[in-house]
Amino acid sequence: MNLPGLEVELAQERPIPLRAAFRCDPGRVLALVGPSGSGKTTVLRAIAGLYRPAHGRVLCRGATWLDTARGIAQSAQRRQVGFVFQNYALFPHLSAVANIVAAMTHVPEPQRAGRARSLLSRVHLDGLQDRRPAELSGGQQQRVAVARALARDPAVLLLDEPFAAVDRVTRRKLYLELAEMRRELQMPVVLVTHDLDEAAMLADDMCILHRGATLQMGAPFTVMTRPASVLVARLVDLKNIFDARVAAHSQETGLTMIDWEGVRLEVGSSEAPCPAPPFVAGSHVAWAIPADGVIVHRRDRPSRGEHENPLQGVIADFVSLGAQAELTIHVNGKAGMALHTTISTHVAARNRLAKGEPIGVSLLASAIHLMPPTTPEARGEEGVDDWARRRFGSTS
Amino acid sequence: MDWSAFALSLELAGWTALLLGPVGIVAGRALAWHRFRGQALVEALLALPLVLPPTVLGFYLLLAFGASSPFESWYRWLTGRPLVFTFSGLVVASLIVNLPFAIQPMQRAFEAISTDVRDAAACCGMPPWRIFTRVELPLAWPGIASALVLTFAHTLGEFGVVLMVGGNIPGETRTVALAIYDRVQAFDDHGAGVMSATLLGISLAAILLVYATTSRRVRRL
Predict the structure, then answer these.
(1) Alpha carbons B100 and B45: distance in angstroms, whole number
(2) Chain A from 88 to 107: CB within 8 A of any B CB
(3) Which one, out of A2, A146, A150, B3, has a CA that is 20 to 30 A from the CA of A134?
(4) pTM value?
(5) CA distance linking residue B157 with residue B148, whole number of Å
(6) How many CB atoms lie under 10 A from the CB of residue A175?
């Protein structure tokens, strides 16, 4: 896999703020994740050549598609992009096979129909080639859109919320199909989604986007459990985010002790040592723990892990959501120390957990994650112009 | 039955629809997808013939086509013929009167094509002219056909502007609408009735044809 993949750098202040930089290697799936209005679709459109940012550089397979500093901006037609739109954007007046043939402008005419049919078969739509989009279900339309995108023999495949418009059962099926298909795909794949679970399931890398800015990129599990900032932690839906002060840090053991509202917590383990700088003793930090790092103690007998950051509290809220129940625990009875965790409903019933009941929990030291405190620079509020100037030399 | 008036009306309607077709497609497409300063004013001016009394419009056109007007001088220099009381003058007037009938339905038709569909065509590698012929035109076709038939039918029945600009010269500017008026003035109810019924039949057939073709097409989309 020696071919270079996709490299993207985009910057502008208005009308849509952008400060995005990421890369995606061939054969890998990168999920661009962010809330609605975070600029995900704009980034995708800029890669495809459907939107031209004020400053930017888009390189793919060594070809320069966009370089505003050098005045290069190739049209969408010349970029060799496979684009699956959110609502598929199939040509409503053409049959499924004609939709696919329409993307084969680079293929000799006699070969087009045969290749289109084999693509339809690849997306499990044999026999439906003559149907128009209106005669296909949502899932079938999505498959035609994927086949049309692949028909272009794209250098990069761009998927804009491709599962948003289908029901849950179909979505599940399409996830499996995409996971199966991606093993054969040799190009970088950029998947835009607002669904963290979808990104974690399908992507090799995850890039968090907020107000047009890329905040953190890495393996989905890493981004979701080790967010680089409090903002990222909030965007990946971590509910337990608090402020604390570093009490001590040991270079030998890799363990850090923090004081959280008068409670001493141990952070890190010998397997997952807590990074020393910049969290030196006495400094302020933010810390977070995923819900599954909060272990509820059994009432009938003690279990392993109870010695790990044991805390006592009161159940402030108990919401049963089918098989799972959401617990809000006020540590030491304080509303400002509200921990959230999830537990199986049957485990909750067995332990007679209910609102107002006392409860013991442990915080897994290895699951506690330390982050810079919430300062403006930690929130990524550097001016876009400064950032663009550093990246692109000059701004107009 | 004044066959020459009928032939003249059909010819006028044909030329108007034929010439306004491309104009409507270009203008309707531009107004649908591009935003520019003064767009509201342009759209208001284009819609003006819908609300202005035909005689008022005809009066201004008569002034614009008059012997001392720059437009008339330019036209005479170009063709060597005057505009007032000629068939060419009728065609020019008819084009102006029918601008909203041609442009507005086409504009609506192009507006109905989603940006994503056009972007998808570009991502498929289709050059702009191919996107136009393979995607935009087929999708906008029901609107374009409606606009053309509306223009054709409206021109067949136009009275006020035709009378003001063209007068009522047999074989040159007397359209079927004027001929019907003449017959009524001459107490020839039978002649007026035959011509009216024929005009009614042609108009109904044209509209039915458009409804049938566009609805079948829409069902297939």
Answers:
(1) 9
(2) 89-93, 102-103, 105-106
(3) A150
(4) 0.82
(5) 15
(6) 15
